[in-house]
Amino acid sequence: MITEVTGILLAGGKSRRMGEDKRFVEIGARSLLERSLDILRCVFQDVVIVIAQDSPDLSSTVPVVRDLVADCGSLGGLYTGLSVARTNRVFVLACDMPFLSQETVRYFVHLKTEADIVMARLHNGWHPMHALYGRRCLPVMESMMAAKDLRIHRVTEHPALKLHTVTAEDLKTIDPAGRAFLNINTPADLELARSIFASDRS
C-alpha cells in the first residue's frame, strides 16, 4: 500500500457529450466510478474524490471534497486534490477510464523520484488525467486558472517544473495497447469499451 502519494479521483464532470452522468454508467455490471475507485483504494492508503461545486452530492467510503475554485474544469479538480492532500504528491485519475490497472498506476508512482510531474505522452497526445503531480505545481495551476488557461497539459511547459515523460515504449510490457488511457466521453466510446470488455471475457 503506497503511503507517500495520495490517490485523487476526479468525478465532477458535466458529461455533456455522453448525455448521462458518466460516473454511474456501467461496464460489466460495475460503474465507471466504482471501477476507478477500486483501483485507487488497492494502491493508495489515502484516496480523495473531488467533485465540482455544482455536482450532486456523492456518498462514498472515502472523503469527497468540492472544487476550491469554481468552473475550472479538470484543472480545478486537480488543483483541489493537490491542495487538500496530506502528501506532497498525488496521483490523479479521471473516473471515466474503464481499463485502469494497478500495475500501470504503480509504475507511474515508481517514476516520481524528483519529478514534479510524471505524465504519459502517447501517439494521441498528453494524458494529464492519469498522471502524478507534486505540490510545486500548485502556484503554476493558480496562475493558469487566473488566466483562464484550463488546458492541464500546459503545466508541463512551465520551466520551473521538472517533468518525467512516459512513452508508449516505456509501457509496452505493462500496457502495450494503451488501454489504461482509454476514456469514455461519448456513447460511441462506451459502446467500444463494452465491446472490448466482452471480448476479453470470451
UniProtKB/TrEMBL annotation:
It is found in: Cytoplasm. Keywords: Cytoplasm, GTP-binding, Magnesium, Metal-binding, Molybdenum cofactor biosynthesis, Nucleotide-binding, Nucleotidyltransferase, Transferase. GO terms for biological process: bis(molybdopterin guanine dinucleotide)molybdenum biosynthetic process. GTP binds at residues 10-12, 22, 67, 96. Its main location: cytoplasm. Transmembrane segments: none annotated. The keyword GTP-binding applies. It catalyses: Mo-molybdopterin + GTP + H(+) = Mo-molybdopterin guanine dinucleotide + diphosphate. Residues 7-151 form the MobA-like NTP transferase domain. One of its GO terms (molecular function) is metal ion binding. Its cofactor is Mg(2+). Its EC number is 2.7.7.77. Pfam families: NTP_transf_3 (PF12804). GO terms for cellular component: cytoplasm. Mg(2+) binds at residue 96. Belongs to the MobA family. Transfers a GMP moiety from GTP to Mo-molybdopterin (Mo-MPT) cofactor (Moco or molybdenum cofactor) to form Mo-molybdopterin guanine dinucleotide (Mo-MGD) cofactor. The N-terminal domain determines nucleotide recognition and specific binding, while the C-terminal domain determines the specific binding to the target protein. This is Probable molybdenum cofactor guanylyltransferase.
